[in-house]
Amino acid sequence: MRRKIHDFEPIVLVAAWAAVLAGCATAPPPIQLMDRAQSEIRAARNAGAATTAPEVLAEAERRLAAAQQFSANNDNGKATDKASEAEAAAATARARAEAARLDREIQQQTAVNAGLQADLERRQAAAAAAQQAVSAMPAPASSGGQPAAGSSAPGNAPVDLPAIQLGQPAPGSSTGNPAPPSTSGQPDPGVNP
User: Most CB within 10 Å of its CB: which of 5, 79, 183, 188?
Assistant: First the structure.
């Protein structure tokens, strides 16, 4: 029987060494992962997650605190898991805050668009009413079936008036020369003021 116990000694020694080596080969503290989780929590707070997703943000903070506690107790495997969970929860909180901000912007822009649409419809109605009022007006009457000077009836060409030149008699007048200007500073007696 003594011989059998000695046969197991090398196996026990190998198992003991394996346990010692496993203890020495634990994961390093997840410092960078905890820093990333901390940064993500800050970004979520800055995005407004404290008001739009407070439960998720609080969960991220609790998981980060647990990761820090596990790291302090040299349980780096659990610390890594909790830091990863904290980072994911903070990213979720930030995404919810961003979604809420975008929803507010969409609602504001929808209200602006509705106001612009209503204004456009009012202006179009006013323009249509003005167009209808112009169409309903009777055409101006003139002698001889010709449109009045300066107006153009549909289908008729505008009337060309002769140019007026100062110092020249009006076309069709009986006098050949214009009256000379007065040099006395007094108006001419034949000119009505």
Answer: 79
